[in-house]
Amino acid sequence: MSDSGQMTGGGERLPSSVGAKHDFDAAEIGALAHLYRGEVYRSTIWRTRLDATTNWSVVTLGLALSMSYANPDASPAPLLLVGWLIAVFLIFEARRYRYFNVWRARCRWIETNFYAPLLLRSHRPEPGPWQDVLAQDYLTPQYHISFWRALGRRIRRNYGYIFAFQAFAYVGKIVIHPTPLESFSEFWTRTGVGQVPGVVIIGVGVVFHAVWIWIAIWSRRLDRAKHLHRDGVAGMG
Q1: Is residue 109, in this structure, part of any structural domain at all?
Q2: 170 in a domain, yes or no?
Q3: CA 220 to centroid of chain Cα atoms
């Protein structure tokens, strides 16, 4: 006996026409167009939230520079403290990036699998595995990227430059204020803050910057390994 349909999860049999491959009709294309517009809007909103935390980091670094460089006798401590504050903003932004990446990935998925074939003369967009992947992502929403990969991406895009500028500004403050540096022993004296010796301050700073550099490199390797395979929902990230 021939099978007249396919089974659903509840054991009911659907007509053979359901789930069969067919060209998109005008109504389906219109629905996909509205869906794409909605995803673009959501990704734009979350992109704005990403820009906000980056702006906070730049502004706070600017304030620290103003306080430390306003007077030759001013303490370089604000340049140290701002590094930790920027790290907190980085954590906020990495969390926001995970949400943003959900909408961005869906937009990119529709662009590459629907609109790109639509624009190519030799191809036509047809329902297929890409449609099932997108449907599954709506049925069971999930992050497409881990927190550490998101952290690394934001470091490589923005925060690496901010941290590097903060480090150079701190060293510059030590070298030129209150007078140009004349000896290496004087360098250790100037880097001390209160009862904390300079060697401890420099050691913590080296570890801090080494950690974010390592995260940037390590996450880059993860991204390269992941993007070798584009199948499944995970490939959308």
Answers
A1: yes
A2: yes
A3: 12
DSSP 3-state assignment of 3?
A: coil
Among the residues of 111-197, which ranges form H helices?
A: 116-119, 129-139, 147-154, 160-176, 184-191
- What distance in Å separates the CA atoms of residue 58 and residue 61, rounded to the nearest whole number? 5
Quick: pLDDT tens for 94-128. Answer: 999 999 999 999 998 998 888 888 888 666 666 67
CA distance 79 to 201: 12
Q: What angle do CA 159, 165, 170 make, to 5 degrees?
A: 130
Task: For CA atoms 110, 111, 115, 117, give the dihedral sign.
Answer: negative
Which residue range forms the structural domain that includes residue 122?
Answer: 24-236
Identify whether 90 is part of a domain: yes
| 12 falls within a domain | no
163-206 pLDDT tens trace: 999 999 999 999 998 888 888 888 888 888 888 898 999 999 99
